[in-house]
Amino acid sequence: MSRKPYPSDISEEEWHFVAPYLTLMDVNAPQRQHDLREVFNALGWLARAGAPWRLLPHDLPPWQMVYQQFRRWDEAGCFEAMVNDMRSIIRVSEGRQGQPSAVVLDGRTLQSSCESGVRAGYDGYKRRRGSKVHMAVDTLGQLIAMTVTSADEQERAQVKALCEAVQEATGETVKLAWADQGYTGEQARQDAQASEIDLQIVKLPEAKKGFVLLPRRWVVERSFGWLSRFRRLNRDFERLPQVLASLHFVVFAILMLPKAAAVIAAAGSS
């Protein structure tokens, strides 16, 4: 690498883990003009800095090439496969089963931008116009599945899609899901049961005074806090909902890489 490193660049150990997931063609293919590691570094820089695609620094690959390769990786399911494998590695390293038996569901509303277009809806509870990201995470806060809708969509309406995606990603190991009161209702419970998941609602205390740490629900809120460190995900800057969803998987891959690479390195040296 001839340029000066950015703080968002991945390490050599992390790249050894990532490379097999991102290599869609032979490394010596004549179509390849840019190093894949630099393309992934460009994605990391974009997510951290929050800049538009066209404002990628000149010492990184051209933005058109980075975007095109990002879409190819997305269509091939590279980021989801990477996150799924790292989730299992980290869970096993902490003495847990590779696939979770319980998940936590929640959604967050991202303020719209001019790029959001007709997807932007009004969230009356948050008093914000934008897009809503619905996420399912394991009990460690690691991403399993997600959907993107207009902000005026109810959380309970996404239970069916989320539970189906969770079971597909985990091999149908999940039996329990915790959620907040936005997921109440008989239809949401039936949608979860259709995927053989028991949906349990964690309610606020009736006499709440001040901040209350709610059991289980705090896990997904912490995951939202992790995402807030990446400025690209602080608002909805994407024209396509699948791009917004894919960037969430990219960010979780970046968050999980140091720990997963350390586990692999420790296993190799023992």
Biggest sheet statistics = 7 strands, mixed
Q: Radius of gyration in whole Å, from Cα?
A: 19 Å
Based on helices, strands and strand pairing, what is the structural class? alpha/beta
Sum up the overall morphology in one term.
globular
User: Count of DSSP E strands?
Assistant: 7
- Span between termini: 31 Å
Instruction: Determine the number of helices (DSSP H or I, runs of at least 4 residues).
Output: 8
How helix-rich are the residues, as a percent range? 40-55%
Order of helices and strands: HHHHEEEEHEHEHEH
Classify the oligomer: single chain
Low-confidence segments, given as residue ranges, are none
Task: Round the mean pLDDT to the nearest integer and report it.
Answer: 88
Estimate the strand proportion. Answer: 15-25%
